[in-house]
Every structure is written in C-alpha cells, then in structure tokens.
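Justification of computing resources. Each target in the renewal requires a structure prediction run like the one illustrated here; the chain below, 295 residues long, is used simply to show the kind of job we budget for.
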Amino acid sequence: MTQKLFLFVASFFISTLTLASTSVNDEMGVFTIDSVPDRVVVLEFSFVDALANIGVSPVGVADDGDANNLIDAISSKVNPWTSVGNRYQPSLEVIASLKPDLIIADPDRNASIYEDLKRIAPTVVLKSRGETYQDNLDTFVKIGTIMGQETAVKARLEEHHQRMDTLAEQISSNFRFQFAVANERGLWMHGPKSYAGSVMERLGLRVATAEERETAYIATTLEQLLNANPDVFLLGEYGETTIVDTWKTNPLWSLMSATKSDRFYEADPRLWSLNRGMIAAELMAEELVELINKP
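Resulting structure tokens:
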C-alpha cells in the first residue's frame, strides 16, 4: 500500500512538472511555452546580449551573414552559432534545420514571417528595433522568465544598475550630446526614443534632439544637424565613404559647436546602434566617461 501511494504521488508530481508552463506578454499578445527552451534562435543582436547575460548561448543568430557584427564583449560570452542570414529576411530553411524549441523575433522586421516561424517552433515577438533603454531591460526580464532564469535576471539587473549609477556619478557635463549613424545615402540622428539616446539620458546627459520624442531615428540634413547643434557629436559610419565626407567640405560643417570645440568623435556603430543591451550600455557609458573627462 505504501509503495502504491509513493508511486501515485511521484507520478502526480512528474505530471505537474510536465504541465507547468510559462507566459509573458509579447508584441503579439500573450506568449506561452510549456517547457524551458534548450535550442534558441534569435533574429536580432539585442537578443544575443540578453541571453549572454544569463549564460545562454543561441544555436542560431540572424547576424546579417557576418559574426563580426556582434561586439567581442558579447560574442565572447556565448558559444559559436549558425548564421540564419539577414535580420530582415532570415532563412526559414536554415532556422528549421537547427531544430529550435524557441525563436525570438522582432515585430518590426519579422512580422511578415511570424506564421512561418510559428510552424517551425514556438515564437515570441519582442521589441528590438527602435527600442529604448527601458524597453530593452523589459525584454531582458521576459527572455529570462522564458528561460527559467528569474534569479539570474534579478542579480544581473542589480549589478547593471549599480554599474550605471557608478558611471553616471563620473559624468558631470552641461554639454548637449548627439549620436548618429551615416552611410552614403544619408545620416540619421538617434533621438531620446532610440537606444543610444535613452542610454545617454539614463546617465543624466542632455540629448541635442531632446524635443524629438516620437521617432527613434531622425533622417537629417546638414542644416538640420546644425539646427540641433550638439556640443558633443558621436558618429557611427557604415562604409568607407559616407555623406558626412561631403558635408565636411561644406563651410557650414565647421559652424557646428562640436566641430568648433573639437568634440566630434567617431564611434563604433556596432556598439552604439546594432548591439543593444546591458553589456553594450555599460561599454557606451564607459566611452562617454572617457570622452567627457578628456583633458
């Protein structure tokens, strides 16, 4: 009788564990998964940062066909992955071949293939492109919950905020800051709704485009840049030549506060734009501290 009772209780306990599920709110409504994923494919760089912070390595990454798009500080924390192609148009065939039990997708880039992704594996859709610093932290919590890593998430968030607070204390500046990216076709300022802009505000810095609260990425002419007139201008350039090379030959370029005071800096667009997350934010903050305290 005792043995039968033991077997019944054990069977009930195992069944309860099997039936346990986890739910989070995502961009499509409510996402529910029945078990902790083991093989994860991610379709944005920020999701790699999130997984790296809790010691999880994705099996597949939409890395635009180049593993070097991930900064070393993130890629060094995860195992080698299989590229699933471009973030805008990842290869469904390659994703399926990896046999994932979770896909993490972005609503802006991947909404059109959402149903296809769901047929391959459970797919959670979380904001990445155009996200703010706080959006990114919220996404990190959701990914950690799905991965059953709530304790690790809490510890890492505490560590991160302590680090950011410490770095913020080393920054004392009345300057107006601006980060932008440029290629041959144009230049886009990243306003306070962007990741870079909101990281700056987290550190107590003023963003030159502080009034622009609707759009993360602001297509900008030289005249509009001069109107923003940042005191410190960080630029991430994609390609050997960009539109800024032409602007530099224009007499108006030298009228900008940042150029007049020699506070125009080249920045790595991978760090400041592509690789959003806590690891990236801490490195960005360290760079800002160094720039502000330059003699």
